[in-house]
Amino acid sequence: MNRNDYSYRRDAAVPAFPDDKPLIIFDSECVFCSGWVKFALKHDRAQRFCFLAAQSALGAALYRHYGLDERDYETNILIEDGRPHFKSEGSIRMIAGLDFPWSLARILYILPRPFADRLYELIARNRLKIAGRRTTCYVPSPEERSRFLA
Fold this sequence. Notes:
DCC_oxidoreductase, 4-stranded mixed β-sheet, globular, Glutaredoxin
């Protein structure tokens, strides 16, 4: 798995994309994941984050680039300053990047990474049982559209 900063820029299989803002790649068919995106849109008043459906061509290319299955989304991906973050690390960084009081989530870094990742994996494995699957991908509103790639 290539985790070097901006490694996707050197991968011919990954289309060029604007990477000047942190990018959250999510399973847009998962109700839980789409709900997280709606939450982030509401609480990211500074419009710090951009979003990308994993089901898009670019999303699939990035999953493959990082050695992940582009059909079984075991983790959201946060790409920030060209560096990928997965599982608990990515989720904590996403929440901590939101406006106050969500930025206080930085306190979650005190959790040992193996424990936090196991908790993340438990939720990720059961997310469709917990919240279900959408029959169509999440579609942003016209006001939100500028925050989404592809």
